[in-house]
Amino acid sequence: MTDRTTLLALAAAALLVVVAALGGLVAGGMVARPSPSPTPAVPTPLRTSALGDDEIFVQPLSAGCATSEAVWVVSNGGGIGRFDGQRWSLVDRTLRSLSSAVCVRDFMLAVGGAGRIVTANDTQRTVRVDTAQLEDLNAVAALLDGALAAGARGTVLRQVPAGWAEYAKGLTEDFYGVAAFSPTSAWVVGAGGVTYRLEERGWLPVASGVDQTLRAVAGASVGEVVAAGDGGTILRFDGSWKRVDSGFTGTFRAVARAAGRTWVAGDAGAVYIVTAAGAERRAIGTSCTLRGIFPRGDEVWFVGSDGPFAGVWRLAGERVDRWGLC
Fold first, then answer.
1. Is 319 domain-assigned?
2. d(C-alpha 194, C-alpha 191), whole Å
3. Are residues 251 and 230 in contact, defined by beta-carbon separation less than 8 angstroms?
4. Which tens digit of pLDDT belongs to each residue from 137-159?
5. How many structural domains does the chain have?
6. Quick one: which of 57, 150, 74 has its CA closest to 118?
7. Residue 94 placed within a domain
8. 203 to each of 29, 131, 168, 188, 242, how far by Cα in Å?
9. Is the alpha carbon torsion for 145, 164, 149, 153 positive or negative?
10. What is the reported pTM?
11. 19 belongs to a structural domain
12. Contact (CB, 8 A) for 326 and 57
């Protein structure tokens, strides 16, 4: 009996030694595992808690931009949101169909269905709604003295001190993207691969070489722009339009110039940086449909939504922050 008791005691003591040793290895982060094969690094978005999440991120977010004070997001069939760096707020709950937004200094300007134009004053905290005409407005870009908007049935409008004025005649195609560099230097792109370049003599058609709908355009200058759209189409203009192969076959929905680069984004979380050498994939850790891109300083921001779920992503260097449910 004594021998059996002694053996049990020794076994128990040995087990305690093993457990203690393993505990020390776990605490020191030294548990041995097979070495995994190297895999490409994909940033994991950091979910950032902020008051207002439950309200703002059940909106079908479609676009955004940054004023000097805050980040604004708009929705296509929902309200308008604002982020002050600490808190997301649904500042306007009115259901509106807004498809594009641009910020200039302390103003956010968004356009949408039936010629609707919404202006938010970030200093006075006011929201004003205007209707410039009846055709849908699908895109807006900033000018030094206002903005340029484009939409259905060849609509191009320019913001002037007295309001909004027609800025193109004789155009009939549906436009979905606009890039503006001056009152006499701009691009519009749209259905069937149509592209027009604005020069001093007017809007001139430029053959794109594709028939897929182009949904967005942006660039560093009027002579160096990128357009993108259906079927994974990416075009780069540097004297003529040239197709850029990315291997992506979904729809690109946004193009923007941010952090010194031209970005395109679209379905299934697809994000690419477009250069003269081609298109480089950049993962931001989401499969959500990305509908808008905009700069804020050296940061690149993305807006996306699928059904009732929406999200916002901030890319700062290699770090990705995420807010929302998408």
1. no
2. 6
3. yes
4. 999 999 998 999 999 999 999 99
5. 1
6. 74
7. yes
8. 65, 24, 7, 9, 20
9. negative
10. 0.84
11. no
12. yes
